[in-house]
Amino acid sequence: MTAPDPANRYKALLGLAHQAEQEFRQQESVRAAKLGGELFEAGRAVEATTKHEAEVVREVTAWWSDVTAKLLRVSWAHPGPRPKPDPAGHPELLGDYLAEVEPKTEALFAALRRAVWPRKL
């Protein structure tokens, strides 16, 4: 048996390195496409969440304006500043939060109506 020719061995090693490089490039191309898709979907989710947040802020601002307008009609009630977003709040519980706030708001309005009766509130 004779030893393999160094030039042929070098060519074989270069061929293997080239093949490994091509496989790696293909894998990275697939990975990059997948990550690009995930980034696109994440961007859409952020955009949708931002729109939803803006809607909630508008709703809370309108609610607060309504409450403030009614409180300002009586001289002895002084509303505080507009509520700030709670970073500890959970968006999926928004319905529960509203279910808690709405009856209390109605109770406040009823108490104000009784307090200023017979005037209109």
Topology:
Layout: H1 6-71, H2 94-116
- Percentage of residues assigned to helices: over 70%
- Give the structural class: mainly alpha
What is the count of structural domains?
A: 1
Mean pLDDT: 90
Low-confidence stretches: none
Q: In angstroms, what is the radius of gyration? A: 33 Å
Overall geometry:
rod-shaped
What is the overall number of helices? 2
Total DSSP E strands:
0
Order of H and E elements: HH
What is the makeup of the main sheet?
none
Estimate the strand proportion. under 5%
Distance between the termini: 108 Å
Model description:
It contains 2 helices and no strands. The protein has 121 residues and is an all-alpha fold. The protein has one domain (6-116). It is rod-shaped and about 115 Å long.
What descriptors fit this protein?
mainly alpha; 2 helices
Summary of the model, kept short:
With 121 residues, the protein is an all-alpha fold. It contains 2 helices and no strands. Helix content is 74%, strand content 0%.
